[in-house]
Amino acid sequence: MTTLSYSFVELNLDDQNHQTALFNLMNTYMLDRMGCEKPLHVDSFQDLVKGLKNQANYIGVLVKIDGGYIALANCFVNFSTFQMSSLINIHDLIVLPDYRGKGVGRFLMQSVKAIARNRDCCKITLEVRNDNQTAQNLYLSEGFKECSPSMYFWEFSPI
To answer: Which intervals hold domain N-acetyltransferase (predicted)?
Structure first.
């Protein structure tokens, strides 16, 4: 049996290899049925990079194996007013289809947890689609639970 060896690195938006990985992983996510099932256009990607560079609270986490990037977590540092401490919100979690079911998602979650511990964050939050049972099972197995009391994720689009 072959054991796969993963490593993680915080994404550097000025590194061309990291930008390429970000594009490929985000495009995969967008094409997925859990995404919008539409490709990420290059023009939109440049706006994404520019926007992320303007977010001092952005943390991108890439998982690497054999020189290639296979997973990504787009995270943002926020602040808990109740706990008076920083927290990390996982906004996107992406694993390339060929690496799903091989522990990559778990490794990525554990990598984000390590970053949160190193930054003395009080918690990690995330949103998950109610029809994404695979992701929910991963999150539950990693100690995440539904908020108590239960919360809704609402949005408003001013444009």
So the answer is: 9-159
State both tokens at 40: 């990420």
pTM of the entire structure? Answer: 0.92
Element (H, E) at 140: helix 133-141
Using one digit for the tens of pLDDT, what is the confidence trace for 19-54? 999 999 999 999 998 888 898 888 899 999 999 999
Q: How many CB atoms lie within 10 A of CB 28?
A: 19
Read off the tokens for 63. Answer: 């998982």
pLDDT in tens, 125-140: 999 999 999 999 999 9
Residue 156, domain member (yes or no): no
The residue segments making up the domain with residue 94 are: 7-141
Which amino acid is it at 8?
F
Q: Is residue 56's pLDDT more than 90? A: yes
CA atoms of 43 and 21, how far apart (whole Å):
16
Number of domains in the chain: 1
- E-assigned strand segments in 96-146: 124-126
Q: In whole angstroms, give the CA distance from residue 99 to residue 10.
A: 20
**Residue 137 counted as domain residue:** yes
**In this structure, what CATH number is given to the domain that contains residue 130?**
3.40.630.30
Answer whether residue 2 shows pLDDT above 80: no
